[in-house]
Structures
1.
Amino acid sequence: MTDRDIALLLADAADEVEIGIAPYQAVIRGGRRRRARRWALATAAALVITGASGTLALASLRDGSGAEVTPAVTQKPTRPSTPEERHVYTPQETMLGAGTEKGQQWYVTVDVWGAPRTEAEAQAQLSAMSNRGEEPWDKDKASALVGKITYFVRRTYGSGAPTLLMGDSASPQDTMAGTDLKSGASTLDPKKTDGPQRLVVGQVAKTARTVLCTWKDGTSTEARRVAAGADVNSDEATIRPVAGSPDNWFVCVGAEGAMFDSVKVTK
């Protein structure tokens, strides 16, 4: 096989690489591990490594004299094009936190809907959101969703149906930086709306390492950043990446009887 034949084989291999998003495996009980499917492609001629950015790194080859040869590779655009690939009609769901309260299991998840590119896509997205029980503020004006991602935070407690905690639409380029923070506080049990607000959920910059939630009794809970794919452990306060979101998200839960006072990025 000549160097040209090898280069052509490498080009064909690169064309066949699919850049995919690992499917989310729901994690409910503490300590259970999130599963992810990974794609890899290897040939006898070279190792093809697919990074988060979709770029390809190829192992170098050498010709008969020992000189290094870099084969030409034709890459396909990696930007998702269809509404399905962009998650316009089916959201990406990420679990933020989970725990147990008086024998009742609770968990908090985030749905992120991809940005529609046309008003027709936005209208179809509104229908899909409605079927899931999620409605944005701009539900009567589909054009307001064009070019924006939309998220909904859902809380599930015991055997009850998921309830919405918060939601918003924003441009994917509208990212947080430094100590920027957006959050909301609520009761842990949705049936006890007049109870103490001890569940805090929010967004922070990707660079934020710790968030401090302070309660009116003077105690505090610190959420620490974890890597993508980290375990969702019972009653653990964490900051973690959310599929489809340009920002990281966090969850803090105060002890029984605690009442929310303040929250801030500390590192």
2.
Amino acid sequence: MVNKAKPVCQTLEELASTAARTRLQSRCFVRRQDIQTNAYKVALFEGLPRDDENTQSPLLSKLASLEIRTIAGMRYARAKTARLTLLYGESPWRIIALSLGFILAVALIYPLNEWLRPADGVPITYTQIAQDPSLFLESLYFSTLTFTTLGMGGYEPLGWGQVIATLNTTFGAILVALLVFVFGRRAAR
């Protein structure tokens, strides 16, 4: 059934492209990718049937099955990640939401253990934020600055804060690149 559904989705996708129906084209593309992801899942959990199992030794058969399942598992994980984060390159909103969530999460992490200090003050902690809630905005500001790789501003990450700032910058660059990819993909239609 999978072998029949994929070509139907691909044909519909091509027809939608010809008719300049970009939403339909996008939905058909996503559906085709979902079908392929399902095929990876089936191969992962059930393995692929082999016609020559009787001619191979049991050990070779098990190794081949393990290899097939390992490859299928990696492809399944990659496809699920692409669906969750990018909707297979079709949804800029997912990347924007993921980026905003990541910025907020990092801003919440910095005050945990005095990992962020303004240049002219003491490290920001939740105790200080309870007294002056505007300090959380400073943590959010720093998280946004490092995510967008604009710089450190008047702040200094301390201890594990340096690692967090590095990860923030790295994921920021990756997510911005993915956003550009999705916009480019949509503009190319």
